[in-house]
Amino acid sequence: MDEQTRIESEAAAFRGLIKHLQQRTDVQNIDLMNLAGFCRNCLAKWYRAEAEHRGESMDYEQARAHVYGMPYAEWKQRYQAEASPEQTARFEETRSTHADTRAGN
Questions:
Q1: Burial class (CB in 10 A: 0-12, 13-18, 19+), 44
Q2: What pLDDT digit, counting tens, does each position of 72-105 carry?
Q3: In the 8-state DSSP scheme, what is residue 81?
Q4: How many helices (H) and strands (E) does the chain have?
Q5: 34-41 CB contacts, 8 Å cutoff, 24+ apart
Q6: d(Cα 41, Cα 30) in Å, to the nearest integer?
Q7: How many other β-carbons are positioned within 10 Å of the β-carbon of residue 48?
Q8: What are 4-16's pLDDT values in tens digits?
């Protein structure tokens, strides 16, 4: 596969993941973190870091709006449920395996 096709394929896969997560509002971020070690917020942080790496100015809220398909505060009010004690405990147990979302990682 040539480099341009690879880049376009990866970008399309990212857009597909974003679209899927926007449609699956029933899937809570804490469940994603507990099962996969990343969530919508992680994707937003990676997206912002890569945009800024390429010279684009983007704040975290803009990146989250892109990932969530709406402002985060609106998504949270509409779809986010309070985490159960079990979910919170699992989150803490799996913390060491969560994605590194710091810029450059």
A1: buried
A2: 999 999 999 999 999 999 999 999 999 998 765 5
A3: P
A4: 6, 0
A5: 34/87, 34/90, 34/91, 34/94, 37/94, 37/97, 37/98, 37/99, 38/98, 38/99, 38/101, 40/64, 40/67, 40/68, 41/67, 41/101
A6: 10
A7: 23
A8: 999 999 999 999 9
Residue keyed to tokens 């990343």: 38
Q: Which domains does the chain have, with CATH numbers?
A: 3-97 (1.10.3340.10)
Amino acid letter, 91: F
Pair of tokens at residue 77? 């009010």
Exposure of 11 in the CB half-sphere (CA atoms within 13 A): 8
